[in-house]
From TrEMBL:
<dbReference type="InterPro" id="IPR056504">
    <property type="entry name" value="HTH_HVO_0163_N"/>
</dbReference>
<feature type="domain" description="HTH arsR-type">
    <location>
        <begin position="81"/>
        <end position="158"/>
    </location>
</feature>
<dbReference type="InterPro" id="IPR011991">
    <property type="entry name" value="ArsR-like_HTH"/>
</dbReference>
<dbReference type="Pfam" id="PF12840">
    <property type="entry name" value="HTH_20"/>
</dbReference>
<dbReference type="InterPro" id="IPR036388">
    <property type="entry name" value="WH-like_DNA-bd_sf"/>
</dbReference>
<dbReference type="InterPro" id="IPR001845">
    <property type="entry name" value="HTH_ArsR_DNA-bd_dom"/>
</dbReference>
<dbReference type="InterPro" id="IPR036390">
    <property type="entry name" value="WH_DNA-bd_sf"/>
</dbReference>
<protein>
    <submittedName>
        <fullName>Winged helix-turn-helix transcriptional regulator</fullName>
    </submittedName>
</protein>
<dbReference type="Pfam" id="PF24266">
    <property type="entry name" value="HTH_HVO_0163_N"/>
</dbReference>
């Protein structure tokens, strides 16, 4: 495969991939394949070449590889990757209003508490959310840096397939309750 392969639209495939990653930070591999209408092998080839040339970086977050401009701060990359998941993003948006108990966040987001906890694990590990305990042992969730969180949220626009997958998970959770 050549980087000179020019699809409809007149731009070389590798340049299209690089530009798309920079414009849409944190897309995971399958989403990139779908949005650019590429064969998986073709996308792998170009992403590998772009990574070797330090034009993109792939990072695995919660079992998915997400692609970024290498100039983006590693902490920002992790936040964006997490925010590509609708449930995590909705929980964080809920916390932009201020600290809240986990049950209230789960109810506002419309997920089971166990689903919220699954997403909180990644958010806490990434330093986005902290769990605070009062003197009675009750937990309150709070953003560690609301301004940085808001900036990261503005950088992404979740795709329809991502939103549908997250909503399907919510539906299954509701049926299992």
């Amino acid at each position: 495969m050549s980087d000179r392969a020019t699809p409809a639209g007149g731009r070389p495939t590798r340049e299209r991939v690089a530009d798309y990653v920079v414009a849409n930070p944190g897309l995971h591999f399958n989403e990139l394949v779908r949005r650019l209408d590429l064969a998986p092998g073709q996308a792998q080839y170009h992403l590998r070449r772009l990574a070797r040339a330090d034009r993109v970086v792939g990072e695995e977050v919660s079992g998915r590889t997400h692609y970024f401009d290498p100039a983006l701060d590693p902490l920002e990359r992790r936040r964006i990757a997490l925010f590509r998941r609708e449930t995590a993003r909705d929980a964080v948006v809920e916390l932009l209003d201020g600290p809240a108990p986990p049950d209230a966040v789960a109810e506002a987001v419309g997920v089971a508490r166990s689903t919220l906890e699954h997403h909180l694990d990644g958010l806490v590990d990434a330093g986005v959310v902290e769990k605070r305990r009062d003197n009675r042992g009750r937990v309150t969730l709070a953003l560690t840096d609301p301004e940085a969180t808001a900036r990261s949220l503005r950088r992404i626009e979740p795709s329809l397939p991502d939103r549908l997958l997250d909503r399907f998970t919510r539906l299954v959770d509701a049926l299992l309750e």
